[in-house]
Each structure stands twice: as structure tokens, then as C-alpha cells.
Amino acid sequence: MRIILLGMGVVGGSFLELLELEGADLYRKYGLHPVVIAAADSRSVVYNPRGLDLRNILMYKRTHGSLQGHPNEVEGLDPVRDLDAEVVVDVTPSDFRTGEPGLSHLRAALQTGKHVVTANKGPLAVEMPALIEMFQHKGLKLLFSGTVGGGTPFLRFVGKCLSGERITSIRGVVNGTTNYILNRMEDGVSFSDALKEAQEKGYAEADPSNDVDGWDSAAKLVILSNWAMDLGVTLRDVSVRGIRDVRITEEMLSRGRTVRLIATADESGLRVRPEEIDRKDPLVVPGALNAVSFTAEISGRHTLTGKGAGGRETAAALLRDLVELKMHMGGSEPC
Ligand code: HSE
Fold first, then answer.
1. 185 with 246: CB under 8 angstroms?
2. Which residues of the chain register pLDDT less than 70?
């Protein structure tokens, strides 16, 4: 399976490391032979039609800070439009206003007949219903496990394990950065110090106001509710409030209550806001964890908890999607 990788940040690097590490197993278990023919960062594209040397690319990026000047660098190339490949893996940063550059990547993939595996939330936040329709219309796969929950398979859980049931509501903590900050504020750490810590740990978005002002949670809520409840919504349909004004007091904690940034989709609509909540509620999870409760019409509330952010975790979700794509493309035949 020939892959074009767009984005060489923490997630892109982890993805290449995982391919190196799991390559033999992926082939043995699933007949999947991923060959990364091109990789792009914000400045350069490197290309080898027989497959790039992943270890070399990773080392080069680490040492030089970019792919510029690499022996496989090709100038003036638009990788998605100009190259032949089965799949585009997009791990470029999420922009929740324009959806770019992810939106252009998806359009180019559609026009050139390529499947997409993406961890970029921007395009889905602004145009998910239309994108799903266009990919379906073209018979192409658009897979996005890594957009919600990092490595925790929230989307797959509700899509596969609860299939056949109507999901009546979703309530979740879907942003690791703000959850980390609120947990640290319970320990008496200030908002700004806790945010700095979250950035150092690599949880925050390139622009962390997307985390603290609730936009990252809102984008994930859009993706979850379109997927699980078929709502046909975009970011414009979500009422959003972040955590900048939140205070967690000793008095609140002594009453067994705390505050979490909760994303909700129910009969009243879609909203993200800080809510006072019982500390024993399953949505009250430590550190940068995520937790999502799906309420199914018959079987009731199901809550899944797991790591919601991090390069390796998100890269694991990308691998899962590649395996799913392989199954779709031809069972366990080598590809
Ligand atoms: N900034 C995001 C978070 C990363 O903190 O959850 C994962 O999408």
C-alpha cells in the first residue's frame, strides 16, 4: 500500500516510528505492506517511488528540524495531485476556522482517487457531512479514528459495539489539555502554570487557545455526533464556552464536586461548557485522559475511558485505520 504522509510533527514522526516497529507484524497478520513513498512537512517534500528509508527520514528531521535539503527532496511537487498512491495520511495541524490545509488535501485526494486516513480535525469540523457524502459518492474511504480520543477507539466502539441501537445522547470529556489543567487546578496549581505543563507534555494544539476555549472539544463533538447520531452538523451548530474563567474551590471539592469541560449532544442540541460535576461520575478522569458516555436507547449508558492525546497514541489510531483500509481493499491479500 503506497502512502503519502502529510505532516511531520509529533504524530507524523510517531507514525513513521510505528511503521518501522510494526512493519513485519502488519504484513504477517494482515498482509499489509505499507510503503511511504512521500513525506511532507510545512516546507519540503521528500519522495522515492520505491519507498523512503523511514529511519533516515526521522533522523534527518530530528537533526535538521525540517526535511529541507534532504537528498530525496523534490521541489515544485504537489504530492497528493502529482503522485500515484493508494492512501494519503494527513497529520497536519487542525485549523477550526478554515479547515486548511486539511480541506485542500481531502479535495485533492477526492479528485485523484485516493483514500484518506486523517488525524486532522479541521476539515471534519467545518465540512464533515459534505465530505462524507463526497467520499462515499466516489467509492473512496475517509477514515478518521485518530481525530477523537487519540488512541482510544471511541468512534469504533460506538460504531461497531453499539451497532443496531439508536444513540440518544453523548456526553464526554474529549480534550486532554483542559482535563489536565482542571486536574492540576484541583491540586492548587494556577491555570497558566498548568497550561504550560500541558504544552510541555505535548498535549496541547499548535494554538492552545483551541483547547482552552473549547474549540477542540467542539470539533470532536461534531465528529462523534455525526458518526454516532447521524446529525449532519458542523462546528457552527455547537455552542462553545472554554475554561478560562473556571475556579475550583476547596469548598466545592469538600462537597465532592469538581469542574470538567463537558461536550454534550442531546435533544437540546450540541454544547461544550465547563460543568460542575460529582467527583465520582465516570467522566471525572485524571490527567489528560478522555472519557465519553454514549447513551443507547435500549442498553443504556456506556462509558469508555482512555488516553485522549499524544503522538504515539494517535499514531496507533492511524495504523488501525490503515488495517481497516487494507481489509476494505482486499482481505488479507498482500498489498
Ligand atoms: N490538543 C488535543 C487534546 C490533542 O488536548 O486533547 C488531541 O486531539
1. yes
2. 331-335
Cα angle 327, 330, 334; round to 5: 95
DSSP letter string, 141-198: -EE-GGGSSTTS-HHHIIIIITTTS-EEEEEEE--HHHHHHHHHHHTT--HHHHHHHH
Ligand 1 site, residue 8, Cβ cutoff 6 A = no
Q: What domains can you pick out in the chain, each with its CATH number?
A: 2-151+312-329 (3.40.50.720), 155-307 (3.30.360.10)
Contact 220, 147 (CB under 8 A): yes
Q: Are strands 45-47 and 87-90 parallel, antiparallel or unpaired?
A: unpaired
- Return the exposure string of 68-92: e unless at least 16 CB atoms fall within 10 Å of the residue's CB, then b: eebebbbeebebbeebebbbbbbbb
Residue in 220, 280, 307, 326 annotated catalytic: 220
Q: How crowded is residue 251: how many other Cβ atoms within 10 Å of its Cβ?
A: 8
The pLDDT score that the predictor gives to residue 244 is: 96
- The answer to whether the beta carbons of residues 79 and 46 sit under 8 Å apart is no
Quote the pLDDT of residue 48: 98
Nearest partner of 66 among 84, 93, 39, judged by Cα: 39
Question: Ligand 1: distance of its center to the CA of 138 in Å?
Answer: 31
